[in-house]
Amino acid sequence: MADPRMMTQISGKPGFLAALDQSGGSTPSALGTYGIPDSAYSGDDKMFQLVHEMRVRIMTSPAFTGDKIIGAILFEKTMDGEAAGRPVPIYLWEDKGVVPFLKIDKGLQPEADGVSMLKPMPDLDALLARAVKLGIFGTKERSTIHLASKTGIAAIAAQQFEVGRQVLRHGLIPIIEPEVLIKSPDKAEAEAILRDELLKGLDALGGGDKVMIKLTIPEAPDLYKAVIDHPRTLRVVALSGGYELHDACRRLSCNHGMIASFSRALVDDLRLQMSDAEFNATLAQTVDQIFQASTVKV
């Protein structure tokens, strides 16, 4: 059963989620932006060590607290690691007041019918059981929508809810994430189809089950209002999706009831070479900007 204190925070506290869950495919780009070129390391072990050090620097910053960051999504290796000498999920909640989530997907299938479905996750039950023991509150799985294909989007939504029900059986809260790519040639049409499929999936949930949903900021402001207001929706969060920080925040501020769960937009201005004072000041400024867009709407 989810921690009631975490549930209260995630369901209603003003703020946003930090997405610190870059995986193998996106880590080199994240490190490169941070100031560590791929020539500086060899092999996955060193790469993941360096990105863990980057994440620890972010998590231990005075700017990273539950005052404005209500939750953080972690890569599996980050969940298994330590920050300030403590297991990361425990450190986040007990020291920072930030609710820990876990990215659980194993990547994407090749695009077919306008979407990229989740790869199989045969070991998911074991991972979820381990996450519960480590103090994780919820999970996230990302798949992508390329085109406004009704059958493809229906399939991707159905798969997301199927995984979500598996997560719920472990007492965890799933974040369902069918990402409409911002470069989709028919993004607005795809989003309208997705909204209707999400409502079907929410209607089909049983009992007192609730899910979170992570979505690309829509072309039409408040397109997802019915999804946000659905009684089975705990909270709807927005991914930055490749929009730069200012643009992402501007778009988000037009969507009532939607808060941020940014990854790239959160960390893009941070650099390894910064002094701690510069790093913390830059992160604080970014956190303030994302918080404002999540809480003050136009």
Structure keywords:
two-stranded antiparallel ribbon, about 300 residues, alpha/beta, TIM Barrel, eight-stranded parallel beta barrel
3D architecture notes:
- There is one protein chain.
- Helix 2 crosses helix 3 (44-59), helix 7 (150-168) packs across helix 8 (187-203) and helix 10 runs parallel beside helix 12.
- Strand 9 (211-216), helix 9 (225-229) and strand 10 (233-239) form a beta-alpha-beta unit.
- This protein starts with a helix and ends with a helix.
- Helices cover 43% and strands 19% of the residues.
- The relative contact order is 0.13.
- The chain is globular, with a radius of gyration of 18 Å.
- It has an eight-stranded parallel barrel, surrounded by five helices. A two-stranded antiparallel ribbon has the order 3-4.
- The protein has a single domain (4-295), classed as TIM Barrel.
- With 298 residues, it is of the alpha/beta class.
- It contains twelve helices and eleven strands.
N-to-C span:
37 Å
Shape: globular
CATH topology: TIM Barrel
Roughly what fraction of the amino acids lie in strands? 15-25%
Largest sheet: 8 strands, parallel, barrel
Number of helices: 12
Count of beta strands: 11
CATH top-level class: Alpha Beta
Compute the gyration radius: what is it? 18 Å
Strands ordered across the widest β-sheet = 1-2-5-7-8-9-10-11
The CATH superfamily appears as Aldolase class I
Number of domains: 1
Q: What class, by secondary structure content?
A: alpha/beta
